[in-house]
Amino acid sequence: MIKENKANHSTDQYDNKRLILRRGKEFKMKLKLDKEFDPEKHSIVFTFYTGDKPAISKGTLCTLHESQKLDNKDWGFVLEKHEGEEVTYTMMTSVAAPVGYYKVLIESICSVTDSPGSPNVTKITCPEEIFVLFNCWCPEDGVFLDDEAKREEYVLNDTGLIWVGTYRDFEPIPWNFGQYEVCVLECAVYLLSNANLAVGARSDPVKLTRALSALVNSNDEGGMLWGRWTETYPPTQLILRNG
Hints:
There is one protein chain. Helices cover 20% and strands 30% of the residues. The protein is an alpha+beta fold. Strands 1, 3, 4, 7, 8 and 9 form a 6-stranded mixed β-sheet that branches. A 3-stranded antiparallel β-sheet has the order 2-6-5. 20% of the residues are buried. A hairpin with a 4-residue loop joins strand 10 and strand 11. The protein has helices at residues 2-8, 148-156, 184-193, 205-216, 218-221, 235-241, and strands at 20-22, 26-32, 42-49, 61-64, 76-83, 86-92, 100-110, 120-125, 130-133, 159-165, 170-176.
């Protein structure tokens, strides 16, 4: 169901096999058990966690039991349908979830076993992590944009223009942002892992943006780019020079 979920979350352009979600929005998950699913006997528990030391108090660890209804203020899931060994759930990520990669642990608990005693519990960790992004389509998200044209321009667009030249003689040149390349999300997480920012704080778009901005600067933060400030520009010239 990865293809369907990515299309619903406007992440289908990413050249990445992993499931990429926008927080605060429903997605589907289908499980295939080793026996026929019976909602009276079986229960499923999902655990989503991110970072090296996940903790509930930091918002980096969430253990979920089946809910009655979904609310994007919190993680949750509800049973959608089941047939034989297959069961489909509608899942929800919190609109305040830290962005980044999440590992998923699934526990299947069967209350009826061949012998009396503890219930039969099967645990499995999904082989692929999922990636959670900010969600400018969600009114409850701090990055919400109430304008589809702006979402296309500032969030989904993969090409644009940059301005070069002097303040009297400047022109645009095409620029490929490359945000959908296969390595981009991995690179972003790698940079964040070197930032002075707790994993739980990645839920805040302002703090995360400041951290990434600092990481770009090699001079002070050991980042990617080395600034060359060998000339002095009046403020008006800087504005035009930077486009």
